[in-house]
Amino acid sequence: MNPQNINNTRKGKVAGTKVAVVILNWNGLNMLRQYLPSVSSLSPEAEVYVADNASTDDSMTFLAEQYPQVHTMVLDRNYGFAEGYNRALQQIDAQYYVLLNSDVEVAQHWLAPLIAWMDAHDDTAACQPKILSVAERDRFEYAGAAGGFMDRLGYPFCRGRVFSSVERDEGQYDSTADVMWATGACMMVRAKDFHEAGGFDARFFAHCEEIDLCWRMRLAGRRIVCVPESRVYHVGGGTLPKKNPMKTFLNFRNNLTMLYKNLPEEQLKPVMRRRWWLDRLAMLQMVLSGSLSESRAVMRGRREYRRWKHEFDDERKRIQSMAQAAAAESALSDCAILWQYYARGRKTFTRLPL
Fold this sequence. Notes:
alpha/beta
């Protein structure tokens, strides 16, 4: 990494910090103004950083004037979620990183349960809190809920959220549980595991990068856990709204690429054949609902996946060798979530045959 790409201001790099809460910012002045106060006041166990993806608003001026205790680093351009975090975390010496979206409000004592779990369980690479909605505080939030899973065809779902069906929090997922992935909205990750796994795949830019990272750590024999004793409140969709052609493009391209990288050889071709048909069915549904731009985004995502998938061949071989060496079990849930959701009407996590 070219160190000229990062400008550490005010307190600069902190050596030997146990916990670093790192917020990646891009033109998020309004979010910082609204949600940074809770992070700053309720995170006494951590040093707080804001890594800025070359914002053009007044984010950095606001931080300098209102939060001089917060460490900042300014990237020379917008590297997206994946590479933005990679570059920022290379500059922070900590045992645990907490990757936190700028649109997250934290609750009292939110860090203590996460730290306690990681301290007591050396086999855990990453964990997340319970993610609730800012707008409806008794309801889970779409991006992560109470821990993420993925079915055998690559469709993600969560404890508390299956596709667009988001549950109310009634304590049904208050048990600590191993999960397949932790949300990038709020993830505590052991620095050693993050760097040994190679960090986020920068080519993804944004979307699916945290699932890909968690999958690789799982294949290395490490655990991912949800610790619901900790809770935070997430706005969600702060950068791109749910129905956005760019978001759809990135989700489909990156999801297929993630499958290509991480699926074992005997599963790859059968899964990709099924996805070919299912993605076209999704495109048809989008056209019938009047979302022509969304349908085109799916096609563009598939086309881009075909164009670049062989750029990942060497990494695929390395990942599969690592999984064999670690004798890793499949990280995927052995269910067809589309069938369960649409044909069987099972729209909550507890009703799925897992």
